[in-house]
Structure formats: structure tokens, C-alpha cells
UniProtKB/TrEMBL annotation:
Protein name per the record: ATP-binding cassette domain-containing protein
Record carries keyword ATP-binding: yes
Organism for this UniProt entry: Corynebacterium wankanglinii
Keywords: ATP-binding, Nucleotide-binding, Transport
Family: Belongs to the ABC transporter superfamily.
Taxonomy of the source species: Bacteria, Bacillati, Actinomycetota, Actinomycetes, Mycobacteriales
């Protein structure tokens, strides 16, 4: 489990993160969302000890990163693929990571196979595509089988097949009991991947909770012979020639129309997209 408690980071002329608190529980994918410059990257860097907070703390399984005896076994992170040395081969890089993590070098070949890079094992990283470097970074994060994982924009540079593959791997990580924190600017992908969301804006918490709570329930839009009467019957709102009803199903609206003697011409059931929710939360 990853816990962020009143985390604050100030620079000379600005506050990047302001009294931020949230929890990423075990066995779930926590989507970490926010506009550019909202403090996401700074927060993730503080969690893994790359930045020092001015106030507050970040705990991984109850301990600060810098106090962990074997940090690679507790948390794996993909923050940017640019940190990988371009003149190393994929296998050479993963062997180096395995040595640092204190795990057998044989894990390098296992990771190459698991992340679809076995055929590129002997190629220098500078010849990898961005998507391949993303896979290599994710393999590095998982090589010591950590109980917590932090991934910053893990699908960046991946083609549609690669995005679907990475989504599956992320879901597997959570299914195995890990706490997984994922940031992404692709709202549609996050909607398919995350169990929970943490939304920040201007360094502050804007919302936290299960994905379903953010999306809310169904919305039904109906066109009919008497919008005012139907709106009164179902507690909806007349917008133009339509009636819009939240927290209802098409069947609910259809049955209410029948009881009220209103003829329904069309019923359309929908839910808000995560992109709509995100834009509302970060105005």
C-alpha cells in the first residue's frame, strides 16, 4: 500500500504540491490524474525518494522509501524511459537492474520474454522505439517482483496492440495483490484500466475514490410528445425538445411516460465519460 500524507513541495517561486493526501491500496489500480503542471510527476518522485518534501510524508508498506532495506523488492517505478543508458543492450540494462535489486541475473531474460523484448535483447537501447523503451522500463520496474508499482504514462508511444497489452499487464499486477499507481493523459484508457482515481489540480487533491463513483450512474435523454409532463413525472430537466434524467434507466423513463400518458419518440441511455468528469474536476 502507498500512503501520501499531507505532502508538500515548494520551490523558490511556487508550490508544486500542496498538503496532498491519498491512499493507493493493495490489489487495485489507482489512476493518478491531473493537468500538465498539476504536481503528478513531483508527487511520484517524492514517493520514490527522488525529491524531498518540505512537509508531510509518503509511505510504502508503512515505510519511507529512503528507509527501505531492499527498495527494489518493495516498489518498482517507471517514471521516464530516458534514464536508460542508450548504449546498453536491453539485456545488459536489465542485468544491471537485477544486480542493483539483488535478484539473480536470470531474471533479465525472464523479464525480456515477459515484456515482449526477447528478440531485441542484444540491440542497443538507442535503437529501440519509444514503445520498446516503455516496455523495457516497465520490465525494470517489475524485475524484483515488488509489492508496489508506480508507472508514469506507461502507454506513451505504444501502438494500439501495445496499449492493450500494457493494460492487461497492469491489471495482472493488481490482480496479484500489488498496489499499482498509474498516471496517464489518455482518459479513455484510464477508464478501462483503473479501479480507483486520485485527481489533483494545482498541487491539491481535487477528488479521490472508486472509478464508478466518479462516473456516476446512467443518464437518459428522451424525446416525447409532452416534455414538461414527462420531466415532472421522472424528476428530469427539459433541455430543448428533450428531457434529461440522471440516475435512471431507459426502462424507468419509458414506464413513467406510459403512466403519464406521454408518447415517447426516442430514448437514449448514456454515462458521463471520464474525460468529462476530469475536465469538470480540474476547471
Amino acid at each position: 500500500m502507498i500512503e501520501v500524507r499531507n505532502l508538500t513541495k515548494r520551490y523558490s517561486s511556487s508550490t508544486a504540491v500542496n498538503a496532498l493526501s491519498f491512499t493507493a491500496p493493495d490489489g487495485a489500480v489507482t489512476g493518478f490524474l491531473g493537468p500538465n503542471g498539476s504536481g503528478k510527476s513531483t508527487t511520484m518522485r517524492m514517493i520514490v525518494g527522488l525529491e524531498t518534501p518540505n512537509e508531510g510524508e509518503a509511505l510504502i508498506d508503512g515505510s519511507a522509501f529512503r528507509s527501505l532495506d531492499q527498495p527494489a523488492r518493495v516498489v518498482g517505478a517507471l517514471l521516464t524511459p530516458e534514464w536508460i543508458a542508450p548504449h546498453m543492450t536491453g539485456r545488459g540494462h536489465l542485468k544491471m537492474v537485477a544486480d542493483y535489486a539483488g535478484v539473480p541475473e536470470s531474471r533479465a531474460d525472464e523479464a525480456l520474454e515477459a515484456f515482449g523484448l526477447a528478440e531485441a535483447a542484444k540491440r542497443e537501447v538507442k535503437n529501440y522505439s519509444l514503445g520498446m523503451r516503455q516496455r523495457l522500463g516497465a520490465a525494470s520496474a517489475l524485475i524484483a517482483d515488488p509489492s508496489n508499482v508506480i508507472l508514469d504514462e506507461p502507454v506513451n508511444g505504444l501502438d494500439p496492440q501495445g496499449v492493450a497489452w500494457m493494460r492487461g499487464r497492469i491489471r495482472e499486477m493488481a490482480a496479484e495483490g500489488r498496489a499499482v499507481v498509474v498516471s496517464s493523459h489518455l482518459m479513455s484508457e484510464m477508464q478501462l484500466t483503473a479501479d480507483r482515481l486520485v485527481v489533483i489540480n494545482r498541487g491539491r487533491l481535487a477528488g479521490e475514490g472508486p472509478l464508478e463513483d466518479f462516473l456516476g450512474s446512467n443518464r437518459v435523454e428522451a424525446t416525447c410528445s409532452d416534455p414538461a409532463r414527462l420531466a415532472e413525472a421522472v424528476g428530469g430537466q427539459v433541455i430543448g425538445d428533450s428531457v434529461v434524467v440522471d440516475d435512471a434507466t431507459a426502462r424507468d423513463v419509458g414506464e413513467a411516460a406510459q403512466r403519464s400518458g406521454v408518447t415517447v419518440y426516442s430514448l437514449q441511455e448514456s454515462r458521463r465519460s471520464l474525460e468529462e468528469v476530469f475536465l469538470e474536476s480540474t476547471k
